[in-house]
Amino acid sequence: MTAVSRAEYCVIACAEAWRDAGEILASPMGLIPSIGARLARHTFSPDLLLTDGEALLVTPDGTVEGWLPYRQHLALVTGGRRHVMMGASQIDRYGNQNISCIGDWTKPKRQLLGVRGAPVNTLNNPTSYWIPKHSRRVFVEKVDMVCGVGYDHAPDARHHHIPRVVSDLGVFDFATADHSMRLASLHPGVTVEQVKEATAFAVTIPNEVPYTRAPTPAELHLIREVLDPHNTRTREVEA
């Protein structure tokens, strides 16, 4: 069997966001998070709810297993029973996310997606992030516009929680006294110095940083032969 790729470590890191989640709705955005959510459902989170993005609940292979009307979807969102994994054009040390614009919002240099549902997601249910290209342009000192709400802007939000940020370099969380970003694990082949060089703020570095766990043989089989036989994961992470 060929060596585990960086993309496959990223799939595992994303899947772990939903470990033992129970009956909640997984809302992954992006190829690798989607493979990760389906892998979690196949293995250690059998009660996880997956959606086709429209109005149906589906199994990891796409078989319809239920109906999810919009009213019920909103009930899950506002009741903290969904875990979203969104993308970010910018993210800062407290987990504030920007997907709206680059530069002053009154006259931006670049117009992006817009705020979309990011404020509702982050204030009402756990929200993680997937960033396929870790760089100082994305991991910034301060976002140009707050779309997804970080810890410094949501001290009293009932369901606000950012379990993890996964990038092509490692996994990050906010398990610090001031809820600033911390390096939780490195993907094999990545160094702490690479993370520091690619991050525009001083991320907290523990004395000992573990490596992201490798997939088991069974998980690797599922990723390669069942969930992503066409290797689409390399579109987001080539290493």
UniProtKB/TrEMBL annotation:
InterPro entries found in the cross-reference section: CoA_trans_fam_I, NagB/RpiA_transferase-like
Molecular function via GO: CoA-transferase activity
Domain of life: Bacteria
SMART domains recorded: CoA_trans
Family: Belongs to the 3-oxoacid CoA-transferase subunit B family.
PANTHER family cross-referenced by the UniProt entry: ACETATE COA-TRANSFERASE YDIF, CHOLESTEROL RING-CLEAVING HYDROLASE IPDB SUBUNIT
Name of the protein described by the UniProt record: CoA-transferase
Lineage: Bacteria, Bacillati, Actinomycetota, Actinomycetes, Kitasatosporales
